[in-house]
């Protein structure tokens, strides 16, 4: 979807009637609301961000003024803006199904490879904005403006909405920023009396704070008022690096160094994003993260995406004393906790008394929770001897055993188990210690727990066993340990969405685990609640080796999911040409149709996968197959402006004059609406009828005049377009151009 029927580089002004009636509100803030909407014609989801006209008239007006600049921004890590909807005082933009990074950081614990990947992707998006001429400054960069697509990839949003104006008062500028909740992201030089116009280093500083948020999964300056933050930042204070978890890969130290350079007090010492992109890419490759599962497709059919996260529910506990920030607990027992924070364990053991053991701190944490988190086994044993309840729970259900497992404190795990810690006790989501150990690939903790009677087939709230988690995250040693304690039937157990461990290993590309599961009797034909098999998931995610294993196992290669998608459809949709070749060589049907009538050829053409189109055609795929409303692959390629695919389809004898069923549009009509000159020229060179009429008697010339594309009008006229033809309302192309105020085209047509 390039500009949704608009010319590339131009904004389209949508009407409310262009969208289906059911607008779903997905977010609200003091500036307006964000709705999920769907276009009637293309059935594509969009996000519609409306502004309160009373509060934000100025912002909306500036957005309109900046339209030509923002429309040029087309990059994989930047949210695409499609146009405006003046009737709703709104911007129409790309739909991001997984919301903001801010929400994700608060609700889930990201694995380190995913953190590194997200930092790198955000840096690429910012580097692209700064590479424009002149650089497009964000000035509003924060985790709530980093949005997540179906596959949890980062895209930058809300750029170009804040502007520095000549002669602007620095106080007014800061007030404008803080009104949007940006105080934590504003660099120190902004607070000076003689403020220079902000440059690229402003965004670099904000990015440094974003990096800290991703690495620590905490909020910067939590609990501090705006004045405190301003003073701390002005004096060189930054969020506490010690809040980044201790259990981190060694590469994290390099990432922290980049972060510190970005938030340097001297803006001249901050790196450019081009340098940061290079460094974060290298670190991200070291900790390469597999993509997440996409068990339901979000393609042409527009179905919702649902898949288990690459991350797991947030489960963490920290000591209350955080350097530079106020204490979490304000009570008479702070002195006891401060001894733990200082790791003065000898003084702690001498000071702690029986009454301390029964004290409840914030979040229903007990002294035993904090003592376990401190990591000192002798102190844990001392607190237990004083009568601490070994299975006490925090407000979210974390037991001391869960805390010990999360911190990989093996001596303390053994100690707690000896004192009767219950291995089956789970948190509020029914995650047990075994679930956490499996999620983290901690085979040592797994052995300790299993040897003390932990049930390998224990399930959390939505049916996930530890085996599901280990398979999802590629922990082969843990998988082998768990399989040794599980029956053959348990290997095929399903979670709430019907996914088996084989589904998860296949979707994430863990080929050795998939082989292991198959050798232990896992059923390759098992389907989840959307009727997707492991082959569907591995084909969609591009895991060639797993596809090969599953094909060998005798799975039905043409099985369709609940939307009629076969593995070949999904591979074509994602442009996995090698997998398409492999499936077709094993008798996959090249022309099978989804419930909406799309063939693999339609999906590959719509997404611009030229090599896949060639592969499908060479192995029997039909280039003229009719889809929903009679749309052919050529219609879709012209609609998307996929020039190489248009040329490939025409060379393969796609019919340039076929009309779709509902409105009678030919591919040339569609190409004129999409303002794709080269597509128009390709079609004309293959004898497309320049005077074809749709059901409303509209010709390609009418549409080119309406959309104001002078080169297309010239091309049509040079190739025999009849300027006298009238549409159903009696209008010629000249009438349309005059009505749309396309004066250059009016002049052309009057000659």
Write a structural description:
- This protein has 751 residues and is mainly α.
- It folds into 4 domains: 12-94, Phosphorylase Kinase, domain 1 (2-Layer Sandwich), CATH 3.30.200.20; 101-286, Transferase(Phosphotransferase), domain 1 (Orthogonal Bundle), CATH 1.10.510; 312-473, Serine Threonine Protein Phosphatase 5, Tetratricopeptide repeat; 657-751, Alpha Horseshoe (Serine Threonine Protein Phosphatase 5, Tetratricopeptide repeat).
- It has 37 helices and 10 strands.
- Strands 1-5-6-4-3-2 form a 6-stranded mixed beta sheet.
- Helix 24 runs parallel beside helix 26 and helix 28 runs parallel beside helix 30 (633-640).
- The protein is globular, with a radius of gyration of 30 Å.
> What is the strand arrangement across the widest sheet?
1-5-6-4-3-2
Instruction: Determine the N-to-C terminus distance.
Output: 35 Å
**Number of separate domains:** 4
Text of the CATH class of the largest domain: Mainly Alpha
Structural class: mainly alpha
Would you give the CATH topology of the largest domain? Transferase(Phosphotransferase), domain 1
Shape: globular
In brief, what are we looking at here?
The protein is mainly α and 751 residues long.
Label this structure with key terms.
Serine Threonine Protein Phosphatase 5, Tetratricopeptide repeat; 37 helices; single chain; disordered N terminus; 4 domains; mainly alpha; 43% helix; 751 residues; six-stranded mixed beta sheet; 10 strands
List the helices and strands and how they pair.
Elements: E1 12-13, E2 24-29, E3 32-38, E4 45-51, H1 53-65, H2 67-71, E5 81-85, E6 90-94, H3 101-107, E7 108-109, H4 112-130, E8 146-148, E9 154-156, H5 170-178, H6 200-216, H7 226-234, H8 251-262, H9 273-286, E10 312-313, H10 334-341, H11 345-351, H12 354-357, H13 367-374, H14 377-385, H15 400-406, H16 410-418, H17 433-439, H18 443-451, H19 466-473, H20 476-483, H21 488-491, H22 501-508, H23 511-519, H24 534-541, H25 544-552, H26 567-574, H27 577-585, H28 600-607, H29 610-618, H30 633-640, H31 643-651, H32 667-673, H33 677-685, H34 700-707, H35 710-718, H36 733-739, H37 743-750
Parallel strand pairs: 1-5
Antiparallel strand pairs: 2-3, 3-4, 4-6, 5-6, 7-10, 8-9
Helix pairs in contact: 4-6, 4-9, 6-8, 8-9, 10-11, 13-14, 13-15, 15-16, 15-17, 16-18, 17-18, 17-19, 19-20, 19-22, 22-23, 22-24, 24-25, 24-26, 25-27, 26-27, 26-28, 27-29, 28-29, 28-30, 30-31, 30-32, 31-33, 32-33, 32-34, 33-35, 34-35, 34-36, 36-37
